Amino acid sequence: MKKLLNILFLVFMSSYFIVICGFINTREQNASIQSFQVHIRDSLAYQFLGAEDVINMLNRNDLNPVDKSLKEIRLRDIEEHLRKHKIIKDAEAYVTEPGVLHLDIWQKNPFIRIINGADQGYYLDREGNIIPLSDNFSPFVLVASGFIREPFTISRTVNIFEIKHDSLPSNRRVLYDLFDLAAFIDGDDFWKSQIEQIFVNKNYDFELVPRVGPHIIEFGKAENIGQKFENLRLLYLQGLNNVGWNQYIRINVKYKNQVVCTKI
Length: 264
Fold this sequence. Notes:
single chain; 264 residues; Ubiquitin-like (UB roll); 2 domains; 3-stranded mixed sheet; 6 helices; 34% helix; elongated
């Protein structure tokens, strides 16, 4: 009998908790959102966005959750909408307390600024995502300019790799060669600190502007990138460190296993 009573008690308590949890869940679903808080998680590194910008994005698309109940709000819709923005890398929406919805935002990470031949500017991240320029923030990144022409419309393209580019002529493929060259520089601490600008000349060859010294580096095409930079590194460490950094006006590394220096 005692065992039976224990079993009945457990069944009753289980049913009770199911009913209570269902009641609480229904009450929470009917409760309205009184406010929402936006957290830009990488704001110390990048300042493309502020909380007001995110709120305006939601307002423009009738996704502001204030005064709506949880059952009227699809958190996934809010997240997916924000992720479509060219500046936002990721977004997470969640509720942690009654009446308050939280939004965590992570921004895309630019590594190069492009100024193309039409004087249009934008950033790229390491995945090839296009990031618009901001009036609020100018990150300290490598700059590329000159005869750069995209095989797409910038305002309608999210990622440069949406376009098949392998068979494009050199004048239309230059952005992709530039991306490879810039990615190599950005991935090497020595060259990242040394090279500040890439210029694309009318022959679609690359010229590099260093931070130290008056010279221009004639790099040529984006081929044998690693070997060219290794040759240049040896010149810097074994040559210019001994004879001085103000001796040459141009350094040419575009020919295989050759470094040609032009004196001032």
